[in-house]
Amino acid sequence: MPSPDRDDQLHLAAFVTAGPGRPGGWRHPASVSDWRSAAYYRRIGRTLERARFDLVFFADILAVPDRYGGSPDPQLRHGALGSMRLDPTPVLGVLAGATEHLGLAATVSTTYAEPYSVARSFATLDHLSGGRAAWNVVTSFQDAEARNFGRETHIDRASRYLRAEEFVRVTAELWDSWDDDALVLDRDAPLFADPARVHRVDHHGAWFDVQGPLNVARPPQGYPVLIQAGASPAGRDFASRWADVIFCSHASLESARDFYADIKGRAAAHGRDPREIKILPAITPIVADTTEAARAKSAELADLVVPEAGLSTLSYHLDIDLAPFPHDERLPDVDVPGVQGHYQEVRELTEKHGMTLRQLGRRYGGTHEGDFVGTPREVADGLEEWFTGGACDGFTVTAVYQPGAFDEFGEGVVPELQRRGLFRTDYEGTTLRDHLGLARPTAGEWRRRAAREDTP
Amino acid sequence: MPSPDRDDQLHLAAFVTAGPGRPGGWRHPASVSDWRSAAYYRRIGRTLERARFDLVFFADILAVPDRYGGSPDPQLRHGALGSMRLDPTPVLGVLAGATEHLGLAATVSTTYAEPYSVARSFATLDHLSGGRAAWNVVTSFQDAEARNFGRETHIDRASRYLRAEEFVRVTAELWDSWDDDALVLDRDAPLFADPARVHRVDHHGAWFDVQGPLNVARPPQGYPVLIQAGASPAGRDFASRWADVIFCSHASLESARDFYADIKGRAAAHGRDPREIKILPAITPIVADTTEAARAKSAELADLVVPEAGLSTLSYHLDIDLAPFPHDERLPDVDVPGVQGHYQEVRELTEKHGMTLRQLGRRYGGTHEGDFVGTPREVADGLEEWFTGGACDGFTVTAVYQPGAFDEFGEGVVPELQRRGLFRTDYEGTTLRDHLGLARPTAGEWRRRAAREDTP
């Protein structure tokens, strides 16, 4: 039974890479390689919409990672996660035109962008899509990214989060700079917009000076949905205060449950209803008609992964060079500056399952040989256990090969979840906030939340 | 007869505003006000493609202009050109998915963006659209824009163009950072991309430090098409060296012809074939079944324009406050820091036609009561005169009301141009460069051009 702290039904996001996808996946016979074309994203969008997904989510990075061995070559050679990545914003434009219900999320870094541009871009996507835009807020931590934007090294984590905090506040102020009823469109008066209901922002902070108003009316959703993935203490604090959706990664039900309880507790401590935050851990299901066929597919996919492909991606996620460590031994305890969520997962796999670095590379390269491999019913059992077990509000589905694995999940697992009453059989609202069961923020919501923070 | 210096057929761009369009136009009964929706742009894209346009072109500005009377209110009240403007990049994403042939151009400022982001965004659009992307390079000159990006005032023109120059060079280096054959996609080897054919950029200049490589393969067009609109000496020099397409604005055949000859001469002086640059002046045709009906429509449209709507836009284009000048007198000679092309047009209208400021406001607000008002045949006569008279390589068509005026032009004037052999009856290639008759640049083209410049 879902607890009263959670929705009755789970939510589904799809994690899509605007590039070759998970390492090894591009080598699978069922994967297609036209991920540079609009047609590819149109097809994925329609598949996800048929399966009634809440949203599609595009990760991003602003460089070809070169953390493993100090070179981008392993990423490029193996088609690893950072080898090639289209800019997600125009891709969302394609999807805004090609879909009618699906939520549309893009990752944009607060470290290498400007609040006016980001506020405008997501306001535009929210208008174009009729209220379906979402922004995954990241702070970026790769030196390779810094060196593409005029810096030698990335900014330290504390400063990045201070900048992110101010960035998001300014962005919200810009979304609020047009009142909901500012656009009058009276052809006879004539009165296009009421100047009294359009406001300057006049923000002057440590990182940004922005006059405003935005030159786009308030987004249909008030604010586009905000997504965050921080698992460090600073990240969790930021996410529990501002995020609508949290994307995370866990190797076990137990660690997912701990994270879930921690975030919901932090949200409550910040005066939010914990149901205002939807926590959607990543899963990589492998589905087939029989258990044996699913396991065989999993093994086949594992064979396609060159360990170096996975390790070069893990190097970039953890922000440490894994090349010098012996690949047939376990990774020792190390100081990891990168994504803490991934490191927690790695520690769990190393300590509990005894994985060597090479095995980690293979696993990280594309397949999860554990929980969610099996028939649609078996996969649904696993998802139900996590959902009813207090580990999540739904899932972020990654495809082992794009786009086929989304079809398999949508045609196999989703109907099984629907039969169990765990997932919608049709969209009930029009905006992404509707799908997620989130209220539309009224103007000033961010200022009110910030004021609550600033006066303890 | 077209001269051997020009193409046999003219080129057509459509100037679309991702907002209410030309002042007054939004008030016309035939205009629709769903310019916030993806459906609106899909419809415009398909109209233009049916009419075989070369490209659609989105202007942009990064603020609600407040130059007239020091306030954004007149722009907002009257739905003037800068009142509300969606971000053109996601709009191009919609169009990349919804069209198959049309070139797709967005304006992005070199003053308030980063080369890595811009190179990536246009490379993405070029891939998504199969080689149809174009970038209109602007340097931005409004203090209102500067104040949305952490500055009190805009950078001076000379510095802006130095920055633009370096910006465009770095962008081209990033597009060249993947050789054309770098993406191998060999699933068996496996070899995704050949690291030996992906290069760092290692740019260290006065404005930018960028390591590279880009995380997107070389665009299908080599470089997306570059558009420029500078009419100042610095702008003309920049455009004649780097632009593929020039957008401009002229009140008479004579001034258009002077500009045309000047640019083509400058291009030749820089060692370019003058046919490598397509000059497409803006026109605002008003088409109807009879001459009288067209004139009546023009008058009707003029009545919809509040002079203040046009003057507040003119104030922003010229970057001077026109509010204090007597509106029933002619504008005296003034020092204009803004768009020189528009000022030349204003001077011509003031001196030759005796227009007062109020009349300028009305004209600037949305209608051209001169050259291109009439039946399809009469409008085609005017276009033919300009084209064969050495004033242009084609036109940038602005709609007096969106999107209807594009339908009228496409259904009336285009067939007339086709009958005369002046315009294509079908697309003959697949990329925008194909439509424009421009060669695909090989890798290093920009470095070669820059080297030619740097060694006189």
Automatic annotation (TrEMBL), chains A, B:
Keyword annotations from UniProtKB, A to Z: Flavoprotein, FMN, Monooxygenase, Oxidoreductase
Database matches in Pfam families: Bac_luciferase
Molecular function GO terms recorded: monooxygenase activity; oxidoreductase activity, acting on paired donors, with incorporation or reduction of molecular oxygen
Start and end residues of each Luciferase-like domain: 21-390
Binding residues for FMN: 60, 107, 161, 232
Entry superkingdom: Bacteria
NCBIfam families: FMN_nitrolo (TIGR03860)
Family: Belongs to the NtaA/SnaA/DszA monooxygenase family.
Protein name listed in UniProt: LLM class flavin-dependent oxidoreductase
Organism name: Streptomyces radicis
